[in-house]
Design goal:
This protein is an all-alpha fold and 361 residues long. It contains 15 helices and two strands. It has one domain. The protein is 67% helix and 2% strand. The protein is globular.
């Protein structure tokens, strides 16, 4: 909105030409979403506390969680989503179809997560929405997302899969793109959801992925940088850096309240929305495999759950003391801040490796 307003004034006031620069608007997007999340965070936490909007704690989890985390408000993802959407609407080019697709993904998966959180609160258990209904909702949202991308965007390379470290290795997926895209969206949203189990654990890795894709979106949508880095140039995707920047700012503002000891939890409202949104960005900029590298911590958490389930069903034994894997380390006696910070370090390393793929080709 403000982008269109200010650029309309360029003809009369040349100063406003600065709002045409993507880097400038990305910075504004980060700051705007940060300020919004920071300002609305405290009053929303107060309201949620007074209304007893508190998420039930897993009874099979660490004893410390039941003692220390009971009564902490949940659905903090509302803060993040408000920051993301507000900032994106203010600073993005709203004639760009990709922006509207990302807004759709963020709001729809956020709504699905909100329903899950509400059911957990209502019935006072950690089960929430039944898994088959949650999966059906994710499947429907993912299908609509791919439908919009295929039919309403001019994405010439949408059906291609690019492999990092190889400049000429490209797989043309054709119709296989649809199940692959659904796997990426559903998998990423669930992976962030599984990781969101300790104070601040998911928030910082999400920020790192968003920062990485802010840069990736910019270079992929820039003819000079894409040619220099020998990556595919995709018109109009540079605008996605505005959306990714809004995620960075909103998560940073939310982290003020979510840092240990957390005053509010992200809940499924935030985790499903963030995971799915970043997956949609990765699909649009054609860096799906790089998403798995940069978001490797989320992959690790998901794989630990899969291994645990398969092992228990086949042998009756559990590989980990508890899954996802961050709970395994808690059961081993690691302090929560130790686990969180060490996982953050892993996430930083993976983000650097993922970004290195832009040059190492």
């Amino acid at each position: 909105m403000l982008y269109h307003f200010f650029t309309s004034l360029v003809e009369h006031y040349s100063f406003f030409n600065v709002f045409k620069y993507l880097t400038f608007r990305t910075g504004l997007s980060v700051m705007t979403s940060l300020i919004i999340a920071f300002i609305i965070g405290a009053p929303l936490i107060k309201i949620f506390s007074e209304k007893m909007i508190t998420g039930p704690i897993r009874q099979d989890g660490p004893i410390d969680h039941i003692v220390k985390k009971s009564g902490t408000p949940t659905m903090g993802g509302v803060i993040i989503i408000i920051g993301i959407i507000s900032s994106t609407l203010l600073w993005a080019d709203l004639t760009n179809i990709y922006i509207w697709i990302l807004i759709f993904v963020s709001l729809s998966l956020g709504g699905l997560g909100l329903l899950d959180d509400i059911l957990k609160i209502k019935y006072k258990n950690s089960s929430g929405l039944k898994s088959r209904y949650k999966f059906a909702g994710q499947l429907a949202i993912g299908s609509f997302t791919l439908f919009f991308l295929i039919n309403y965007s001019n994405h010439e390379f949408l059906f291609d899969l690019y492999f990092p470290f190889f400049k000429n290795l490209i797989l043309q997926m054709d119709l296989f793109f649809i199940p692959f895209g659904l796997f990426v969206i559903i998998g990423a949203s669930n992976a962030v959801n599984l990781t969101d189990g300790l104070d601040g654990l998911a928030t910082v890795p999400v920020m790192l992925v968003a920062i990485s894709f802010t840069l990736i979106s910019y270079v992929v949508g820039n003819t000079i940088f894409s040619e220099y880095l020998q990556i595919q140039y995709i018109p109009e995707v540079g605008e996605l850096s505005i959306f990714c920047g809004s995620i960075v700012g909103a998560c940073l503002g939310f982290l003020w309240y979510n840092a240990p000891p957390a005053k509010i939890f992200m809940g499924d409202t935030g985790s499903l929305s963030l995971g799915g949104s970043l997956a949609a960005v990765a699909i649009i900029v054609k860096h799906e495999i790089v998403l798995a590298i940069i978001g490797g911590l989320f992959v690790l958490e998901t794989v630990s759950v899969i291994i645990q389930v398969i092992s228990f069903k086949l042998t009756g034994k559990r590989i980990f003391k508890m899954a996802p894997i961050h709970h395994h380390f808690e059961k081993k006696g690691w302090a929560e801040p130790t686990i969180v910070i060490r996982f953050w370090i892993i996430a930083i390393i993976l983000a650097l490796v993922g970004l290195a793929t832009l040059k190492l080709r």
